[in-house]
Write a structure and sequence with these properties.
Layout lengths: L14 H4 L3 H12 L5 E2 H8 L3 H14 L2 E4 L6 E4 L4 H29 L7 E6 L8 E6 L2 H22 L3 E6 L13 E5 L5 H6 L6 H21 L2 H15 L6 H13 L2 H8 L4 H7 L4 H4 L2 H9 L1
Parallel strand pairs: 5-6
Antiparallel strand pairs: 1-3, 2-3, 4-5, 4-7
Helix pairs in contact: 2-3, 3-4, 5-6, 8-11, 9-10
């Protein structure tokens, strides 16, 4: 049985085609927020979490409807948003509003955590809701004697956040003994630094020396330089990350963040790659606060470690 009983024409209702499927929305979001230029089908599929055939089908629908355009020819065409389209201009505003709402939520939660007294060791997003109505689960690490009171206080503050954002937030409190056997492969840290767990202690039986840390940073920086040349979205994500931190007032880190923001705005990709691998005093200093370390996801981090 067909769920639609009355067809609607494209001339009057073009938004049906624009937001017709989740695949189309995902692809448009990627092109609106994550990249500065055109995307190949395989790259678009990967970023949007789609199969290549599924992405191609959705891109073809958007192309026929005139919301995106094809760039180049041959066997591997690329696609980009038609920024001149009036409806796409409105859609871009919606995607930006969606992004702003999430960033405001995270910023609000961070502020409530920072206001806890005494301050916790760390706080993180344990689980992101995958569907409508599912909760956002947070973890809070504190001293045993302060944990209960801080969890209760933060819980009361989060009730207000839930009302403002129409969201359910669950809060779980931990002591260091509780999380010794936990793993934190792909969590979002909101405050502080997560302590080493049993698994990380097994991997690094002895702490790294200063020279070893520098060599590791240099090796990762070389891999990042190659990754940025191949994936321009990393540059945009790093800029967004820095802008968010600067809005939150990062204290003593503000100077380095501002310096990084100026570098990302003024350096070409080739010059940025050379800076990453430079042995200059400035490069060595800023390497410690490289924003790209914070924005790579779990898959990208694994590739950097294995390449």
């Amino acid at each position: 049985m067909r769920p639609i009983v009355l067809e609607q024409d494209f001339l009057r209702y073009p938004l049906n085609e624009l937001f017709g499927t989740q695949a189309q929305v995902r692809l448009l979001r990627v092109m609106a927020n994550e990249v500065d230029g055109p995307l190949a089908v395989s790259d678009a599929a990967k970023r949007a979490g789609l199969t290549v055939p599924g992405a191609q089908k959705a891109l073809n629908k958007l192309l026929r409807a005139g919301f995106i355009s094809r760039v180049g020819g041959g066997r591997k065409p690329q696609y980009q948003i038609r920024f001149s389209d009036r409806l796409m201009q409105v859609a871009l505003t919606l995607f930006q509003a969606e992004k702003d709402q999430y960033e405001q939520l995270i910023s609000t939660i961070k502020t409530e955590i920072k206001n806890l007294k005494p301050h916790p060791y760390a706080a993180w997003i344990k689980e992101i809701p995958k569907g409508v109505g599912e909760p956002l689960t947070l973890g809070l690490l504190h001293e045993t004697r302060h944990l209960t009171n801080c969890v209760q206080h933060l819980r009361a503050r989060l009730n207000l956040v839930e009302n403002d954002f129409d969201l359910t937030i669950e809060l779980e409190g931990y002591t260091k003994a509780d999380i010794f056997d936990h793993t934190f492969n792909d969590v979002t840290v909101l405050y502080g630094v997560l302590p080493p767990t049993n698994s990380s202690i097994r991997q690094h039986a002895s702490p790294l020396t200063h020279n070893e840390k520098n060599r590791r940073l240099e090796a990762i920086s070389r891999k990042l330089a190659k990754a940025i040349e191949q994936d321009s979205s990393l540059l945009l994500r790093a800029k967004v990350h820095i802008d968010r931190l600067l809005k939150e007032d990062s204290g003593t880190a503000t100077k380095d963040l501002t310096e990084w923001r100026d570098i990302l705005d003024s350096y070409s990709l080739q010059r940025l790659s050379r800076f990453f691998t430079s042995s200059s005093e400035r490069a060595n200093r800023l390497r410690q606060s490289n924003p790209f370390f914070a924005i790579v996801n779990a898959d990208e981090r694994a590739r950097l470690a294995n390449d």
